[in-house]
Amino acid sequence: MLFVIEEETQASRFSIHRLAHYCLDLAELMKIDCVVPVVIFLNTGKRAETQTLGDDRHTYLNFNYLACDLKQRSAEDYKDSNNIVARLNLPNMYHARQYRLQLYPAAQLGLVRNETAPNKIRKYSDFIDYYADLTEQEVIEYQQHYQTKEGDLMGMVKIWTEEGLQQGLEQVLEQGEKIGKKKECIALLTRILRRKFGLQPALEIVLQQLPKQEMERLEDLVDALLDFTDIKDLENWLGL
Asked: CA-CA distance, 175 to 27, in Å (whole number)?
């Protein structure tokens, strides 16, 4: 059995002819007849449900597919799911606006509990951030009500375990002789600190200057970061 999965952000862009073409090509290539087309729609909208080719006497092709409309699935039904795909997509499922801030940590916790690879955690955390699209006020509320209340899992850097964070940063630092890698490391550090404490623009400017320093300076900050408890620790470390 072969599953052919397509994601469509805008339903209006979906082409059932294109999907049928892909399925026929793959069936011929793989020499298989059991092909299951699945389309995941991020947003609702009009689209073709089936495609029939024929005339008054015969039907020569009758093609349809399985559809998953994320906006028609209730996020409440999946907020405690062990299915990592469901947890990642909580922001894309149906929910009242006032519950979005509750779904955001539920999605992040689902990621941490069901994925162990640091690189994938960072990648899919960005996915959650993008689709959750929290306002500045919601970010502040998140820091006040979730990062302090949920303990180390949510309070450290929200999604990375200390070991995963350390490994991820060390991987960047290992290649840090090139200025591009230094900037990548600083970008990661800045994002972590922004999520943990919130950063004033002046502090972000100071952090952006760190790539001009020696790599040992960045390594020291990586080690120190794991012990920071508030923004004053960062300011003291920077000598401000």
From this structure: 44
* Same domain membership, residue 147 and residue 166: no
The span from the CA of 15 to the CA of 237, in Å, is: 56
Question: Tens digit of pLDDT per residue, the chain (240 long)?
Answer: 999 999 998 898 999 999 999 999 999 999 999 999 999 999 888 999 999 999 989 999 999 999 999 999 999 999 999 999 999 999 999 999 888 888 888 898 888 788 877 778 878 888 888 888 888 888 788 777 765 443 333 433 344 444 455 555 555 455 444 445 566 667 667 766 766 666 667 777 777 776 555 566 766 776 677 677 777 888 888 777
- Quick one: 55 and 87 in the same domain? no
Same domain, 135 and 167: no
101 and 143 share a domain? yes
> For 53-80, b where at least 16 C-beta lie within 10 A, e where not — what string?
eeeeeeeeeebebebebbeebebbebbe
Q: Which domain range does residue 56 map to?
A: 2-72
Q: How many domains does the chain have?
A: 3
Closest by Cα among 73, 7, 11, 14 to 43: 11
Cα 39 versus chain centre, distance: 20
pTM over 0.70: no
**Residue after which a domain boundary falls, among 153, 174, 209:** 153
Give the Cβ contact number of residue 132 at 10 Å: 20
Q: How many residues does the chain have?
A: 240
